Amino acid sequence: MDCNWNDNGTYSVRVDGDWTVGTVAAHLQMIALQSLRISDRALHYVAVNPEGRIVTEIDLNGVTTIDESGYCVLALWLRHLEKHRFHPVVIHQDASVVKRFFA
After folding, report:
1. How far is CA 28 from CA 19, 25, 79, in A?
2. pLDDT tens for each residue of 52-102
3. Which DSSP string corresponds to 85-99?
4. Which residues are registered as beta bridge partners of 2?
5. Over the chain, what is the mean pLDDT?
6. pTM > 0.90
7. In whole angstroms, what is the distance from residue 26 CA to residue 16 CA?
8. Which of 72, 70, 42, 56 is nearest to 13 (CA)?
9. Strand blocks (E) in the chain
10. Fewest C-beta in 10 Å: which of 15, 27, 86, 93?
């Protein structure tokens, strides 16, 4: 996972690779690390911009393979981000992939 922060309050994460039942457990540590990074950036951003809104862009275009397990783990992460008001936005060239997370 690659990540990038901009000064407008947007945290971008590029998700890559295989997200199937055999590999998804290995991604959990990366998801936890990204969540900590987002929280850390949010604390600094909100300290300077109390009315600011953190947007988390999750770019899934690098995912090569995904099955139900991958969708479930990523959907859980998106709900976690949403619960903590990090406003997740899923990016993928195939709109049906994006819709699947918000159905």
Report:
1. 11, 5, 15
2. 889 999 999 999 999 999 999 999 999 999 999 899 999 999 998 888 887
3. T--EEEE-SSHHHHH
4. 14
5. 91
6. no
7. 13
8. 56
9. 2-6, 10-19, 55-66, 88-91
10. 93
